[in-house]
Specification:
Layout: E1 2-4, H1 9-13, E2 19-21, H2 41-44, E3 56-63, E4 70-75
Antiparallel strand pairs: 1-2, 3-4
Length: about 80
């Protein structure tokens, strides 16, 4: 129940795996500009810049260390996790 997707050449060059289990696939729904005005693909994933892969604006706080570290992140999209 896996599918091989045809990926953009930039994604293949970055090493993105092209086989996904069917439970992970969803129908593509384009951005809703009323709900998310001005949201661009480049805010989530910058394909030209290898260093911007994770698209983090900055780290707000952290606790713990090594494998138990937890970070609060402000993403370039404006979300905070």
């Amino acid at each position: 129940n896996s599918y091989r997707l045809e990926l953009l050449s930039d994604l293949r060059r970055r090493g993105l795996h092209d086989v996904f289990h069917s439970s992970l696939l969803r129908i593509h729904e384009p951005n809703n500009d009323r709900l998310f005005p001005g949201r661009l693909d480049s805010q989530v994933f910058e394909m030209e810049n290898e260093d911007g892969e994770w698209a983090i604006d900055h780290i707000l706080s952290h606790r713990g260390s090594a494998t138990n570290a937890v970070f609060e992140i402000l993403w370039k999209s404006g979300d905070c996790t």
